[in-house]
Every structure is written in structure tokens, then in C-alpha cells.
Fold this protein.
Amino acid sequence: MERTLILLKPDCVERRLIGRILARFEDKGFNIVAMKMLQVTPELAKEHYAEHVSKPFYPALEKFITGAPVVAAIIEGLEAIRVVRDLLGATSGLKAAPGTIRGDYSSSRQMNLVHASDGPEASAREIGLYFRKEEICNFALTITPWLRASDEG
Ligand code: CMP
């Protein structure tokens, strides 16, 4: 079982897509084990996007990500890190395949609606940036036996 951090970005919140996009993860069978709305500060943005801080697009990215609230959530499930990124599609909404979240709702490289951790290290680091241990609910969905066979994990 894996956990991954998603951020529904300011464009998602402003476009009133929170419910529809969270539903995509629920529909797939993932469990949401933590969630909150918050305003990303410039300091948090620099920590979260540390690998991008020196890139030319970073100032615009920081202005965007701090421009309205975000919804942070932890998604749990089998191979959640990879599968959640597959559900999002390519970074640019113009390149993302139809049927993916970005392919269906975004036509931008920056305003691509949702961030998701890109590997186990990033997931652990990003979960730690947005959530304290006691904010995470450890529970299994009662419908789990109807989502996958018992020998699948
Ligand atoms: P995300 O998956 O959150 O990771 C970094 C973010 O930076 C990315 O989504 C986009 O919102 C943004 N981004 C990535 N590449 C570019 C780019 N070339 N120009 C502008 N924004 C970008």
C-alpha cells in the first residue's frame, strides 16, 4: 500500500473543480486518508518546489501557487504514486491524453490543476510538509473486498 500527496491547485479551486477531481480518485478505488484547504505561502512554495526554484518559470509558478487556496490530500492505495500520476496525465494540459484529468480539464502547462508526488522520496517529503502525523486517518474502506481480490494486496 502506498501514499501520495496531491495538491488541488489554485486554478482547480477557483474553477470549482474540487469535487469533480476528488471524485476521479475515489472512483478509481483510492482512499483519501487526510485532507485540508490552506493558503500556500512563498516560504512553503519554495520548500515544496525546491527543485524548481532556480528555473526561469519559478517566479510565475510561485505567484500562481500562492494566488488562491489549495486543497492538500493524501491518497492511499496500491501503487498510488504511479497510478495517481497516470490519472493526472502529462504536465501540460495541451499534451495530456484525453481521459486524464489534465487532458480533460486543462489547456495549460502551468495551470495544470493538480500536483502529485513523483516518487516515494518526494511523497514522504511532501506529506511531511503539509500534514502532521495526527492529521492522517489510518482506516480501511469497508468496501475494500469489492475493490480488489484479497491476494492483490
Ligand atoms: P507540478 O506537477 O506541480 O510540478 C511543477 C509545476 O511547475 C508543474 O506542475 C507546473 O504547474 C509548473 N511548470 C512545470 N513546467 C513549467 C514550465 N515549463 N513553465 C511554467 N510552469 C511549469
